[in-house]
Design a protein that fits this description.
single chain; mainly beta; Glucose Permease (Domain IIA); 6-stranded antiparallel beta sheet; 1 helix; 17 strands; globular
Length: 236
């Protein structure tokens, strides 16, 4: 059964073998689920240089690189019957599913949220049992980035961008991490308190892919986040 989250963060999948690294991804239905898999951790490669500033939620979010700031605007919503993609989404930047164990979810990128004022949902809610491990999907630097809406949150900065995980019950390892390092545990802190436990997951690439997935809510980007659904569908 498909589980839907009520996450208010600003800023879906079925089981199967993950594609080979570097392969182009194809996607189908707007949901995902898995009974859980076990992944070996890769060799740790440390994040080089100081990480970018902590996550900034909302449509006014910016990217900072090489001392310059490039603003991205929220893509205008358009009515669609389901998620769409102009072409291959490209190589998957995520080496494994951010939440280990049984998970489920749907493409809620751009869904309306009202906690803290109206805003489109800037991520995907990965539904999982409380305490399920949240792992780094690539080598990098894990930084605690708690905030009012996200509660306990952790951001992992890597070579291609950063991921943001919110509503943690508690933190795991922070600092330099390798692929598969546990950086936190699923919970419902922040504006998710009292609701279903899940990981609010966002992907913020340094460079957007040429072909962006458009969710059924009509969004491709929100702030610096892009819809990570096709990547999650391939690996969770």
């Amino acid at each position: 059964m498909l589980l839907l989250g009520a996450c208010g963060q600003r800023s879906g999948l079925h089981g199967g073998a993950a594609p080979a690294a570097g392969s182009n991804l194809a996607v189908g239905a707007d949901s995902f689920s898995s009974q859980g898999r076990s992944f070996p951790a890769s060799t740790v490669r440390l994040f080089q240089g100081a990480p970018p500033p902590p996550v900034t939620n909302g449509a006014s979010a910016t990217k900072a690189a090489a001392g310059s700031v490039v603003k991205k605007v929220v893509s205008p919503p358009t009515a669609t019957a389901g998620g769409t993609l102009a072409g291959p989404v490209g190589p998957n930047p995520l080496a494994l599913c951010p939440v280990q164990g049984p998970v489920s979810g749907s493409d809620g990128f751009g869904a309306p949220r009202y906690a803290g004022g109206y805003h489109p949902h800037a991520g995907i809610d990965i539904m999982a049992p409380e305490g399920a491990p949240i792992v780094a999907p690539f080598p990098g630097m894990a930084v605690a980035t708690p905030n009012l809406l996200g509660g306990n949150a952790v951001t992992v900065y890597g070579a291609q961008g950063y991921v943001y995980n919110a509503h943690l019950s508690r933190y795991g390892r922070l600092g330099p991490v390798g692929t598969g390092t546990v950086v936190g545990y699923v919970g419902n802190t922040g504006d998710a308190q009292g609701g279903a436990t899940h990981d609010h997951f966002e992907w913020h690439p340094k460079v957007d892919p040429a072909n962006l997935w458009r969710s059924s809510y009509g969004y491709t980007t929100i702030g610096t986040a892009i819809d990570p659904f096709p990547y999650l569908k391939a690996i969770c």
